[in-house]
């Protein structure tokens, strides 16, 4: 084990592998791919900072999203992309009141809603924090609605259209994958989604109707 002049503790390949619980060959491969920082001694031996190994251990310990919930989010994204590419969105009467900037802003916020839902479905965030973030997203939806001169009713219709794509994805995946042990409880997921969207929509309406919105 070596120490640098700055007081950093360096580990040999074997020591780093033991800390990570990996075979040295795997750690060597990570270093070759620059997935794990390392340096070489004058003799050509690899050395790893203890701080980098500990950071990797923390990263590996973080809970990862359930594969089924990730599939749900990807399904929704696929439906949204298809609706844009095949022109379905453009046939909706409410869409005519959205300029390009408003459409892009709504798409961006929609992606953030999906990220919020992914966290909710994996129990990674406190419920009150999720609720607070949902309200903030709703306010941003409303502000964009007001500043883009989109009728509030059409903004609501746009959000409900997005919500319908969510519901359709949940129901389809529940039918296809509902019996698999590692999947999320699909009926419960609907309630979790509703708990978030039920906070977003009122906040959208309130912010859109706010007389202080910039014109």
From TrEMBL:
GO terms for biological process: regulation of DNA-templated transcription. Residues 14-54 form the HTH merR-type domain. One of its GO terms (molecular function) is DNA binding. InterPro entries: DNA-bd_dom_put_sf (IPR009061), HTH_17 (IPR041657), MerR-type_HTH_dom (IPR000551), SinI_DNA-bd (IPR010093). It comes from the Bacteria. SUPFAM superfamilies: Putative DNA-binding domain. Pfam families: HTH_17 (PF12728). This is Helix-turn-helix domain-containing protein. It comes from Ktedonosporobacter rubrisoli.
């Amino acid at each position: 084990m070596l120490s640098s002049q700055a007081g950093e503790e360096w580990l040999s390949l074997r020591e780093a592998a033991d800390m990570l619980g990996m075979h040295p060959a795997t750690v060597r491969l990570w270093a070759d791919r620059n997935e794990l920082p390392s340096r070489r001694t004058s003799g050509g031996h690899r050395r790893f900072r203890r701080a980098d190994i500990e950071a990797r251990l923390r990263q590996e310990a973080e809970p990862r999203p359930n594969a089924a919930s990730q599939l749900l989010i990807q399904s929704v994204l696929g439906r949204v992309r298809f609706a844009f590419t095949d022109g379905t969105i453009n046939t909706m009467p409410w869409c005519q009141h959205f300029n390009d900037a408003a459409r892009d802003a709504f798409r961006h916020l929609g992606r953030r809603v999906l990220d919020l839902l992914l966290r909710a479905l994996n129990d990674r965030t406190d419920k009150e924090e999720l609720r607070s973030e949902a309200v903030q997203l709703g306010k941003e939806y409303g502000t964009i609605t007001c500043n883009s001169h989109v009728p509030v009713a059409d903004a609501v219709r746009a959000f409900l259209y997005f919500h319908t794509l969510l519901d359709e994805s949940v129901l389809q995946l529940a039918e296809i994958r509902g019996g698999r042990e590692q999947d999320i409880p699909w009926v419960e997921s609907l309630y979790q989604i509703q708990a978030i969207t039920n906070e977003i929509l009122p906040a959208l309406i309130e912010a859109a109707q706010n007389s202080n919105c910039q014109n």
